[in-house]
Amino acid sequence: MLEIFKSITAGGTVFNSLAVILGSSIGIIAGKFIPEKTNDTIFNCLGLFTIYVGVNMTLKTQHSIAVLLSLVLGTLTGEILGIETKLNSLGDTLKAKIHTSNAKFTEGFVSATLLFCVGSMAIIGSIEDGLRHNPEILMTKGIMDCIAGSMLAGAYGVGVMFSVVPMFIYQGAITLGASWAESVITESMYANISGLGGLMIMAIGLNMMKVTRLKLGDMLPGLIYVVFLTMIFA
């Protein structure tokens, strides 16, 4: 199977997208048979595990100040640009177009999009796929996303499946621009991207457990700031 996706342009992203669709489909079907009380329990467990994944990622941080400043500056930039609002609007637009009555459609779309896109595996895997035509990292990520997608879709519904659209565009763009990115991104940048991504994933888990209502979309510009601030602090 690896050889098949090696021969496809952005093959890792294609596999990852198919895996998310498969996992989401399983979750949507299975979610219909799970009682609401049980669904809430599963949801809290998923939120707790998401926090655990985020903590593991933050431990890779090499320059804490760079990550902190990136988070603050990125969030301020995101608020000014209204990224969270735009993501929610996109979710609402998709919800209207497919005529679904699922009240959690937009929340599921935004949460899944962020979960699938902010991790370092999405960035590193896309670069590896673009430079060396090696989709193995993204295929591994795809299996993980398939499992996470099934659990998220069981709780949120079909909105999770539609997160595959921004994920495909995001990872595909990085893959196509990998020859430029490879000459710029260092190991320290990878580590700090992972650290900042871990904080965002922790925030997703806290929101899922209804501990906080953080505007996660507004944090995304931090992933750009962390590259430049790492250059300074390194």
Number of domains: 1
Total DSSP E strands: 0
End-to-end separation: 40 Å
Overall pLDDT level: 85
Helix content: over 70%
Count of separate DSSP helical elements: 12
Structural class: mainly alpha
Q: In one word, what is the shape?
A: globular
Q: How many strands, what sense, and barrel or not for the largest sheet?
A: none
Low-confidence stretches: none
Q: How much of the sequence is in beta strands?
A: under 5%
Order of helices and strands: HHHHHHHHHHHH
Write the topology of this structure.
Elements: H1 2-6, H2 11-31, H3 36-58, H4 64-81, H5 83-98, H6 105-117, H7 120-132, H8 136-156, H9 164-176, H10 178-182, H11 187-208, H12 222-233
Helix pairs in contact: 2-8, 2-9, 3-8, 3-11, 4-11, 4-12, 5-6, 6-8, 7-8, 7-9, 11-12
Characterize the structure shown:
By secondary structure, the protein is mainly alpha-helical. The chain has one domain (2-34, 56-233). The protein is 78% helix and 0% strand. The protein is built from twelve helices and no strands. It has helices spanning 2-6, 11-31, 36-58, 64-81, 83-98, 105-117, 120-132, 136-156, 164-176, 178-182, 187-208, 222-233. The mean pLDDT is 85.
Index terms:
single chain; 234 residues; mainly alpha; 12 helices; 78% helix
